[in-house]
Design goal:
heterodimer, A: alpha+beta, Heat Shock Protein 90, 5-stranded antiparallel sheet, B: Transcription Regulator spoIIAA
């Protein structure tokens, strides 16, 4: 099955993204903690793109696609902003973040620990951020 | 949607009750509330019983105060996290860097037991 959702780059719309992912996943019998983790990973990528690639410009948008298979779920976030290779992102140390009293910098760390595969594809007209989670759906 | 209520409890303990969803859009309100509390109080409780969701933006707020808490000898305890919210703290090991307990009475016991 494939589910789609389009949302403007406005942080207040993150709740709608979470509602969409929750709704898609609700019929798959996924334990609550695991479901929340997947929602969180998608939320993190979308928040990062909205803030860093689109400067929270509500005239620009993100497109989400969720593809469900027997053994995995693939979440794709598609945008037309400045591409960011999420797969090659160098993680900071959590202790450096604490020492420097930063409030950001851990979103993508969460995404990598939650998802089984995190990939970035840059096309001529769009970027695809693909998150794969193995599960028995 | 986030809702934050602050109140001064007995024994100089400052209580911050957080309800709803703490995400990239709403974490600024949590930050303001903790920021004000650490300026005035050295015993702070965070009631997390009604937090339904937390993202890295919310975790980042708590992380950003860890050094200040140590420098100023401030006790800050979070209590009542649901299993799914606690799990988000555990993914990066933040449950080991912050003080998280189950109940308010445990949180108060901890705050009253530490020498500030």
């Amino acid at each position: 099955m494939e589910y789609r959702f389009k949302v403007p780059c406005n942080k207040k719309k993150l709740v709608e993204i979470r509602d969409f992912i929750n709704k898609v996943l609700e019929d798959f019998g996924i334990p609550e903690i695991e479901k929340n983790s997947m929602v969180l990973a998608v939320d993190e990528v979308c928040a990062n793109l909205m803030i860093h690639s689109h400067n929270c410009n509500p005239d620009e948008s993100l497109e989400l696609t969720v593809k469900t298979f027997k053994d995995k779920i693939i979440f794709e976030i598609i945008d037309r902003g400045i591409g960011f290779n999420i797969g090659e992102y160098q993680e900071p140390s959590i202790y450096d973040i604490i020492r420097e009293k930063k409030k950001g910098g851990i979103g993508l760390m969460l995404v990598r620990r939650i998802m089984d595969e995190v990939k970035f594809e840059q096309g001529a007209h769009q970027n695809v951020y693909r998150l794969t989670k193995k599960c028995s759906c | 949607m986030i809702d934050i209520k602050n109140e001064l409890e007995e024994e100089g303990v400052y209580l911050i009750k957080v309800s709803g969803e703490v995400d990239a859009s709403s974490s600024i309100f949590l930050d303001q509330s903790i920021g004000e509390a650490v300026e005035k109080y050295d015993k702070i409780l965070i009631d997390c019983e009604k937090i339904e969701y937390i993202s890295s933006a919310g975790l980042g707020v708590f992380m950003s105060y860890i050094n200040e808490l140590e420098e100023k000898k401030i006790g800050l305890v979070l209590y009542g996290l649901s299993d799914k919210v606690l799990h988000v703290f555990q993914i990066l090991g933040l449950d080991k860097l912050l003080k998280l307990v189950d109940t308010k009475s445990e949180a108060k016991e901890f705050l009253n037991g530490i020498s500030l």
